[in-house]
Amino acid sequence: MFTFLFHAKLNGLMLPMGLLALIAAISAATPAAAQNLQVREDLDFGLMDIAALPGTASLGTDASIAYSGGLIGDGFGSTGEIRIAGRSGTPVQISCSTSATLSNGSHTIDLTNIRISRGTRDGPRRNTRDCEGIGMNVVRLISGNGNLNWGYIGATLETTGVESDGEYDTANSGGVPILIEMVIP
Is the pTM of this model over 0.85? Predict the structure, then answer.
């Protein structure tokens, strides 16, 4: 049995939607493009031991974590957190990648079932949706609205049972981060 640390980075993109959004952003006194997608916390699965069996660790958008198969963990994980900042009351659409890859530099582990919910900074999470890929808007957040400007990311980590010991991170060589896209309609 080996001990692992799993950590997934979130990379934020901001893309205005179409020419009309670009024209609106240029002509507005406070442009819509002034909205800011802030990555407040990366997704973290904590410490786990992997037996020589396939397994999963599912991290909910509420930071709950469940293990199955050959995975045993410390029960401590943290959701990824994003926040929309900028002109108050501006709605934005959020899309996110469907998968990512963790690496320790020599071995990789898949991250699947990426999902997002919205909520307050320390309050309940609402409207959990599965990510469908960049460009496929799944959640609407509103900047400056304490109830609707936070997004929380969860995912499932899938192991094969043949991984080597080490710290797995999307920032390591061979890793692929979770992409988050903000579109200003």
Answer: no
